[in-house]
Design goal:
The complex is a heterodimer of chains A (475) and B (60).
Chain A lengths: L10 H9 L5 H19 L2 E4 L1 H17 L10 E5 L26 H8 L3 E6 L32 H8 L5 E6 L5 H7 L2 E4 L19 E6 L2 H11 L29 E5 H4 L6 H16 L3 E5 L7 H16 L1 H6 L6 H11 L3 H24 L2 E5 L8 H5 L5 H8 L3 H10 L3 E8 L5 E7 L5 H13 L14
Parallel strand pairs in A: 2-3, 2-4, 7-8, 7-9
Antiparallel strand pairs in A: 1-3, 4-6, 5-6, 5-10, 9-11, 10-11
Chain B lengths: L4 H12 L8 H16 L20
Classes of the chains: A alpha/beta (475), B mainly alpha (60).
Chain lengths: 475, 60
C-alpha cells in the first residue's frame, strides 16, 4: 500500500491496515496532511489543522503498535471534528468572529472519547456561523462541495461533509440540531447519523438550541458510523441529559438480510410536490433494493410533518436567539449579516407562540411514535432536492414568501427527527444526471440506532454509491 | 393606529432590548413576518390538552 492509497480507505479499513502493520499511524497522518495541503486551500473544510499535535499523537500510536496489544477498531484513525466541539488549548471558533480568540481549557466529552478510542485528531472543521446555517460570508472561507465547487456542501456541519467527500479525514463528528449533520452528509455523498437526543454527551459542544442539539457521527461508510457512535455514546456525568442505557455493539446487525423488518414510506414527504423528480426516483429505487433484501414496505401517514419546518424554526430559532442573547445585545455587529438578522427576528417571537411550537412538537412526536407502532423504520429523502448553488443560499431575501420557500420547506425533512428526539441516518442513494449526490434518510424509534445502522449497512452493501469519488479531488 | 412591518419590528426590538442596525430593519421585519406567518399555521392544531416538554421522559 502506498501513501496515495491511504486516504481512500474507510476508517475501519485504516485501523485494520495499522493493526496488521501494512501502514504506520505516522504514514497515515502524513498522507492526510498531504491531501489537506493539496486540496483544502480552495475547499475550506478546515479552520484549524493540528499538524504538530496529530504527528506527535501518531508517533505515540506507532510505539503502541510496536508494543503489540489489543488495539481497538478505530486505533490510529485520523479524525476531525466540527469547530463547535471544545478542544483544550486549541482555537474553537464556532464559525464566528465572536469566538475568534476562544481557546477552551477543556476538551468536549466527544473529543475525549474519540481520543480514548485511539483516534488521532487532525483538526477542527469549518461550519456555518454558530451552527445555524445561512451564513453569507463565512469568516474562514466558503466550504466548497467537492462534487461541484459552485454548490453548497450543506449546513451547518459543512466542513465535515467536505472533508469526507474530499478524503481529508477518515471520519468526523459533526453536530445535528435540525439536520446539520444529515444534510451535509446527503449533499456530499457521505453517511451522517443523528442519534437519539440523550445518547451522546453534549458537554463541551457549544449550544445552538439546548433541547435539539446532538453530536453527529459523519463518515465514509455505515460501518465507520457505527464504530464512531460506539466510541462516543453513553452516559456522561457532565451532561445531565445523557442516558444511562448501556451502549450496544452497533455493528451487531451487520450481515443480516432484512426479512422481518417493516419499512414505512412517509407519505407526506415522499409525495411532496416540491420534491425534485430525480430525488424521488432515487428514493423509489432505494426502496426496491431494500425490498429485495427482504424488507416489507408500506406507506405511513404523519400529517403534522407538513408543519415540521415551521415547528422547528419556532423552537430552534427562538431558543437559539435566547442562547445568544448576550451576543445580540452587545456583539451583534461581529456576526455575519444573515446570522444577525435571523437571530434578531427570532428574538422577537412572543412567548405564547414559542409555547405553541413546543406543544406542536409533542403532537408531532405522538404521530411519529404511532407510525413507529406500524413499522420499524421510516423512509424518506434527506433533502427534497440536490445541493443548490452557493449563490442561491446567500442572495438577499426578497420578501416573506421568499423566506418561507428557502427557509421552512426543506427543514421539514430532517427537522422532524430533531423535534421528535428520534434517531435518523442519511446515506448515499444515488446521483442526479448532473452527478450531484442524493441522500436516503432512515428513521426509527428511541435508541434504535442498532436497527437503523443494520438496515443502512444492508442497503450500502447492495449498492455502489459510497464507492464513487468526487470529481474535484482526484489526485 | 396601524404600524408598518418595520415599525412593528422596531418597537418589538426596543421592548426586547435588541438593538437593530438601521439598514437591516427591513430584512429583520421580513424574516419576522415570515416566521410569525408560518407559526400562525400552528393555530389550526388542537393543542389545548398537550403539555409542552423540553426533553421527552422516555429518553432517559
Amino acid at each position: 500500500m502506498t501513501r496515495h492509497d491511504i486516504p481512500w480507505l474507510s476508517a475501519a479499513e485504516t485501523a485494520v491496515a495499522i493493526k496488521t502493520k501494512q501502514v504506520s499511524p505516522v504514514e497515515v497522518v502524513q498522507a492526510y496532511l498531504a491531501r489537506i495541503e493539496q486540496f483544502d486551500g480552495h475547499l475550506r473544510a478546515y479552520i484549524t489543522v493540528m499538524r504538530d499535535e496529530a504527528l506527535a499523537a501518531a508517533r505515540q500510536a506507532e510505539q503502541t503498535v510496536l508494543r503489540g496489544g489489543d488495539l481497538g477498531p478505530l486505533f490510529g484513525v485520523p479524525v476531525a471534528v466540527k469547530d463547535q466541539f471544545w478542544t483544550r488549548g486549541i482555537l474553537t471558533t464556532n464559525g464566528s468572529r465572536v469566538y475568534r480568540d476562544f481557546v477552551p481549557d477543556a476538551d468536549a466529552t466527544v473529543v475525549t472519547r474519540l481520543q480514548q478510542a485511539g483516534t488521532i485528531l487532525l483538526g477542527k472543521l469549518n461550519l456555518s456561523e454558530l451552527a445555524m446555517g445561512g451564513t453569507q460570508a463565512p469568516p474562514w472561507g466558503i466550504p466548497r462541495n467537492p462534487w461541484d465547487l459552485e454548490r453548497t456542501p450543506g449546513e451547518s456541519s459543512s466542513g465535515s461533509g467536505v472533508a469526507l467527500a474530499a478524503h481529508l479525514c477518515a471520519a468526523s463528528v459533526g453536530e445535528d440540531t435540525g439536520g446539520s449533520g444529515r444534510g451535509p452528509a446527503s449533499y456530499c455523498s457521505a453517511v451522517g447519523l443523528r442519534p437519539t437526543f440523550t445518547r451522546v454527551s453534549r458537554c463541551g459542544m457549544t449550544p445552538m438550541c439546548w433541547y435539539l442539539d446532538t453530536a453527529a457521527p459523519m463518515t465514509k461508510t455505515v460501518q465507520d458510523c457505527a464504530l464512531i457512535l460506539g466510541a462516543i455514546a453513553g452516559y456522561d456525568p457532565h451532561d445531565l441529559f445523557t442516558s444511562h442505557r448501556p451502549v450496544p455493539d452497533y455493528t451487531a446487525r451487520f450481515g443480516r438480510d432484512l426479512r422481518g423488518v417493516r419499512l414505512g414510506l412517509i407519505h407526506e414527504l415522499n409525495e411532496d410536490a416540491g420534491m425534485h423528480p430525480e430525488v424521488k426516483q432515487a428514493i423509489h429505487s432505494a426502496v426496491e433494493v431494500l425490498r429485495q433484501q427482504g424488507a416489507e414496505v408500506r406507506e405511513v401517514s404523519i400529517p403534522l410533518v407538513a408543519l415540521a419546518g415551521a415547528i422547528f424554526v419556532g423552537v430552534a430559532d427562538t431558543e437559539g436567539a435566547g442562547a445568544r442573547d448576550d451576543i445580540l445585545r452587545t456583539r451583534a455587529a461581529e456576526l455575519d449579516h444573515a446570522s444577525r438578522t435571523r437571530l434578531q427576528a427570532a428574538a422577537l417571537v412572543p412567548a405564547k407562540v414559542y409555547n405553541r411550537a413546543l406543544k406542536a412538537r409533542v403532537l408531532l412526536r405522538q404521530q411519529f411514535l404511532e407510525a413507529l407502532r406500524q413499522v420499524d423504520v421510516l423512509v424518506s429523502a434527506t433533502a427534497p432536492a440536490p445541493p443548490p448553488k452557493h449563490t442561491a443560499l446567500t442572495a438577499p431575501f426578497i420578501d416573506a414568501d421568499d423566506v418561507r420557500s428557502r427557509f421552512f420547506f426543506r427543514r421539514a425533512y430532517t427537522g422532524c427527527y430533531a423535534l421528535t428526539a428520534l434517531p435518523a441516518i442519511s446515506l448515499p442513494c444515488g446521483f442526479t444526471t448532473d452527478n450531484l449526490p442524493i441522500g436516503l434518510q432512515l428513521g426509527a424509534g428511541p435508541f434504535a440506532e442498532e436497527l437503523l445502522l443494520g438496515v443502512a449497512h444492508a442497503y450500502e452493501q447492495a449498492t455502489p454509491w459510497h464507492t464513487r469519488r468526487a470529481p474535484a479531488i482526484e489526485g | 393606529m396601524t404600524l408598518s412591518k418595520a415599525e412593528r419590528c422596531l418597537e418589538l426590538a426596543r421592548l426586547a432590548g435588541i438593538p437593530l442596525m438601521e439598514a437591516e430593519v427591513a430584512e429583520v421585519a421580513e424574516r419576522f413576518e415570515s416566521l410569525m406567518r408560518e407559526l400562525e399555521r400552528l393555530t389550526q392544531l388542537d393543542l389545548a390538552h398537550i403539555q409542552p416538554v423540553l426533553v421527552f421522559p422516555e429518553e432517559g
